[in-house]
């Protein structure tokens, strides 16, 4: 058995079929790329922790021609720094209506909503999760978000959830094994 088929064990066929169409993964930040906690230093600086496994997952998606972007309600220089490090684009911060912003992104990149995967964790993400091709939430998402999402990760936000989504997309599209073989 190949590792790519192993990764899909237990994943419903409708999720695999939806994942095959994805050309753009869009991510919320706080609670998805981070653990959702806000850390403030004594000098007023804001700190966030990003999981290195998520970063590699994003790079693997890029190498397989799956674009990765950010749509988040908060605004932070740290998000721009991480996005720049990982060559993430588009980046929308301060979003008041994530679905509307995603629709604008679709228009800009000539994509359909069914080619978008969005990963969120809480109420501001519900509309986007409900209307994209593959709406996913992280393991520690709010109860309502878990009920709306098509699929929930086993990992919590900031702890490898994005990597898990990356592997799901890559395996569903038949790209996982080739990537893995490059590292052997």
Write up what this structure looks like.
This protein is of the alpha/beta class and 184 residues long. It has one domain: HAD superfamily/HAD-like (Rossmann fold, 3-Layer(aba) Sandwich). The protein has nine helices and eight strands. Strands 5-4-1-6-7-8 form a six-stranded parallel beta sheet, sandwiched between helices. The longest helix has 12 residues, at 52-63. It is globular, with a radius of gyration of 16 Å. The two termini are 17 Å apart.
In terms of topology, how is this protein built?
Layout: H1 3-7, H2 13-20, E1 24-27, E2 39-40, E3 46-47, H3 52-63, E4 67-71, H4 77-86, E5 91-92, H5 98-109, E6 116-120, H6 126-131, E7 134-137, H7 143-148, E8 151-152, H8 161-172, H9 176-182
Parallel strand pairs: 1-4, 1-6, 4-5, 6-7, 7-8
Antiparallel strand pairs: 2-3
Helix pairs in contact: 2-8, 3-8
Highlighted features:
alpha/beta; two-stranded antiparallel sheet; six-stranded parallel beta sheet; disordered N terminus; Rossmann fold; 184 residues; 8 strands; single chain
Short structural summary:
The protein has 184 residues and is an alpha/beta fold.
What is the general shape? Answer: globular
Total of helices? 9
Overall pLDDT = 94
What is the CATH domain class?
Alpha Beta
What letter string, H or E per element, gives the SSE order? HHEEEHEHEHEHEHEHH
Radius of gyration (CA) equals: 16 Å
CATH superfamily label: HAD superfamily/HAD-like
Strand count: 8
Q: Supply the number of structural domains.
A: 1
How much helicity do the residues have?
40-55%
CATH fold topology: Rossmann fold
**Terminal Cα span:** 17 Å
């Amino acid at each position: 058995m190949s590792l790519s088929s192993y990764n899909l064990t237990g994943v419903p066929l409708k999720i695999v079929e939806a994942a095959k169409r994805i050309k753009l993964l869009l991510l919320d930040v706080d609670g998805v790329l981070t653990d959702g906690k806000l850390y403030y230093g004594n000098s007023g600086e804001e700190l966030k922790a990003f999981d290195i496994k998520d970063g590699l997952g994003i790079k693997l998606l890029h190498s397989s021609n799956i674009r990765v972007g950010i749509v988040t309600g908060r605004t932070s220089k740290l998000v721009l720094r991480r996005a720049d490090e990982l060559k993430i684009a588009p980046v929308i911060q301060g979003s008041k209506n994530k679905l509307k912003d995603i629709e604008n992104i679709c228009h800009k990149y000539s994509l359909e909503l069914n080619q978008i995967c969005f990963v969120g964790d809480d109420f501001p993400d519900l509309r986007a999760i409900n209307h994209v091709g593959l709406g996913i939430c992280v393991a520690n998402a709010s109860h309502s978000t878990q009920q709306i999402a098509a699929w929930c990760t086993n990992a919590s936000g900031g702890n490898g959830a994005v990597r898990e989504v990356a592997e799901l997309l890559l395996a569903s599209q038949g790209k996982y094994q080739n990537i893995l073989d490059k590292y052997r």
